[in-house]
Amino acid sequence: MVRFTTKDALKLWEEKNGRPVVEEKVVKLLMFQPFITKLDASLSTLTKCEHLGLSTNMIEKISNLQGLSSLRKLSLGRNYIKKIEGLDAVADTLEELWISYNQIERLNGVECCKKLKVLYASNNKIKAWEGANCLKDLPLLEDLVLVGNPLEEKHSADGNWREVCTRTFPQIKRLDGQIVIKNDDAV
Known about the structure:
Elements: H1 6-17, E1 26-28, E2 51-53, E3 73-75, E4 96-98, E5 118-120, E6 143-145, H2 150-158, H3 161-168, E7 174-175, E8 178-179
Parallel strand pairs: 1-2, 2-3, 3-4, 4-5, 5-6, 6-7
Antiparallel strand pairs: 7-8
């Protein structure tokens, strides 16, 4: 397999767009051809980047996010990520993490992102509450998508997914794309 890193992708992005990527607030490296396989230290040059899109690639590991001091939204959906790690480098700024369609069994590692408001983690391999309980440590989390995980499928089959999930994570206002209506919100 050809190893294609973010350094290669950023160079191609600049050639295609005719301007320096380091000045951009939004950098999308989606479905890059060849697919990006590795996040390297070149990402540290993106100090002004607020939204980094790396979805639909072949990335296996979250790494080298140091220097992304303005990052608010990180999109890593449709990759080969098995574990959440390396987010401590952006923990002070990250508000949205999109990691659907990966191979993630546990969300541990996301709890360092205290400003996280949106977490899209659908269609992964989360089987048990132990793989999601760390979300209790995210006081600002309001939009959560976990549909398509074995945990959600089991509880949906039992007819209690929304009830159990909103009781477990009382801070969320939207679950799997639907507004959460709590009993104390009823008129």
